[in-house]
UniProtKB/TrEMBL annotation, chains A, B:
Ca(2+) 1 binds at residues 24, 26, 28, 68, 254, 256, 258, 296, 299, 304. A pair of annexin repeats may form one binding site for calcium and phospholipid. Keywords: Annexin, Calcium, Calcium/phospholipid-binding, Metal-binding, Repeat. This is Annexin. GO terms for biological process: response to cold; response to heat; response to salt stress; response to water deprivation. SUPFAM superfamilies: Annexin (SSF47874). Ca(2+) 3 binds at residue 298. The keyword Calcium applies. One of its GO terms (molecular function) is phosphatidylserine binding.
Length: 316, 316
């Protein structure tokens, strides 16, 4: 469930564009006005506004925002305003660049989006960067991490709910064997995690838990400092319980000395329209503090206001 | 260029459906009538006929054809009548089954179709088989062959024509190093072949040829009996000069003691609407016999008539 709130009666894209243009004009920028419009429009509405704005003022809205805003607030508004597939393509590309590389972000995008949404990300990536995300991920990684990440990004998983219980049992056994042998980069282990549908994988991992006494992620915690192992755990978490994965990203971002604004902005802007309500519930359950209070305590100014608007602060 | 010929004035889908129904009725089946209709309609027209036929007679046209026809002729008509994405999904699935498995067919579909067409194949595969092709390919292969095939099937390659010449040079060098070391299953070699756009790969392989004196496929012919190596050569051929690849498949199918009807039917039905004209040119250049003569010499009856109609026998 989303936390985005859209007013019952939404102004036309032309009216919204005009108001945004007004917010940019004159001496100061009217940040409150920008938030009051953009943070309360869904993806389709934002796309219409961007189209109308460009037709009316001859400039991409993103460019105008880029000129007027700065720092964390700017990044939050820009990411939020982008079309979701374009935004993911942008984040994935950033995650494969040398200075901003992040295997976490790659896994997050590859494993928490639906197959079709991931396909749209690939199309957006082609259009914007003139190459494919699998190409960049493969080029910027190596060894075991490449072996895991490239198929995760490439797969177009089946999305149906059908489950083959025989297969779940036999593959749970394979996974348990490989994990017991510490063969964490085994071909079959990677094949199962990177190609099976989420429903099938869930059945397999439930069977693993029932049959062998531990959740697989517990068995994969033999060396907490091993990057490959933590990426493997993140993969499984993203595929089977994304809200718990995102709760943890938010928790670490907020609890960190100095706040990790990059992660905070990414999770809020990419999930506000999808499952932020579930993530908030998980956050409260795990931290005994409501997410909006935690965000308010750790951020300030327009950036804080933007994030709070997106996570539905003040809603019933 | 296609070899399919469609009459200047095409009957309506209702008229075609009625004629087909007539061809099925009575004592014998009117094969000539079936060929005269289906072998001269393009994919969109065949889809319309199938839709209208089902609405009118309450049965999938494929099912009626299956009841009326038999053997090689049946397979040719059924494959041809299918929607191209559905047909490729069917062929790919067959190619991952134990008794009919064929790594060649997997490579052919993965490497000669456009990225978007391959995506449509994946969607058709999900719809029909309730799983993904990458899942089945990964499950039914192992070792080096899996390492090559799974990313080939999974990749959604960039399709633009932009070429990065610096990258082409550096990657040609990597390929040459790995091939010289006989490191044919090297991660980087596979990464380059499975993720780069066809345009980029072409530039890389041209540079390889210019700089190191041989086409890469010549350097990969160290052991003609090694299956992995021949799949690697097929991959490169499918990606860079599909018409030569298909010419060879046809040549081997026709020259074989007893004719390989499976391969012949597959190539004719999948390419008639795409590039069969180019394949015919290649065939004549390489064999000094026109393809339609060779097909006529090796096949007979309605099967022969169907194939000849699809390869444009008797056209100017």
């Amino acid at each position: 469930m989303a936390t985005l709130t859209v007013p019952a009666s939404v102004p036309s894209p032309a009216e919204d564009s005009e108001q945004l243009r007004k917010a940019f004009e004159g001496w100061g920028t009217n940040e409150a006005l920008i938030i009051s419009i953009l943070a309360h429009r869904n993806a389709a509405q934002r796309t219409s506004i961007r189209k109308t704005y460009e037709q009316t003022y001859g400039e991409d809205l993103l460019k105008s925002l880029d000129k007027e805003l700065s720092n964390d607030f700017e990044r939050a508004v820009l990411l939020w305003t982008m079309d979701p597939a374009e935004r993911d393509a942008f984040l994935a590309n950033e995650a494969t660049k040398r200075l901003t590389s992040s295997n976490w972000v790659v896994i997050e995008i590859a494993c928490t989006r639906s197959s079709y949404d991931l396909f749209l990300v690939k199309q957006a990536y082609h259009a914007r960067f003139k190459k494919s995300p699998e190409e960049d991920v493969a080029y910027h990684t190596s060894g075991d991490i490449r072996k895991l990440l490239v198929p995760l990004v490439s797969s177009f998983r089946y999305e149906g709910t059908e489950v083959n219980m025989m297969l779940a049992k036999s593959e749970a056994k394979i996974l348990h064997e490989k994990v017991s042998e510490k063969a964490y980069t085994d071909d079959d282990l990677i094949r199962i995690l990177t190609t099976r549908s989420k429903a099938q994988l869930n059945a397999t991992l439930n069977h693993y838990n029932n049959e062998f006494g531990n959740a697989i992620n517990k068995d994969l915690k033999t060396d907490p400092k091993d990057e490959y192992l933590s990426l493997l755990r993140a993969t499984i978490k993203c595929l089977t319980c994304p809200e718990k994965y995102f709760e943890k990203v938010l928790r670490l971002a907020i609890n960190k000395q100095g706040t990790d604004e990059g992660a905070l902005t990414r999770v809020v802007t990419t999930r506000a329209e999808i499952d932020m309500q579930r993530i908030k519930e998980e956050y409260y359950r795990r931290n005994s503090v409501p997410l909006d209070h935690a965000i308010a305590g750790d951020t300030s100014g327009d950036y804080e206001k933007m994030l709070l608007a997106l996570v539905g602060h003040g809603n019933a």
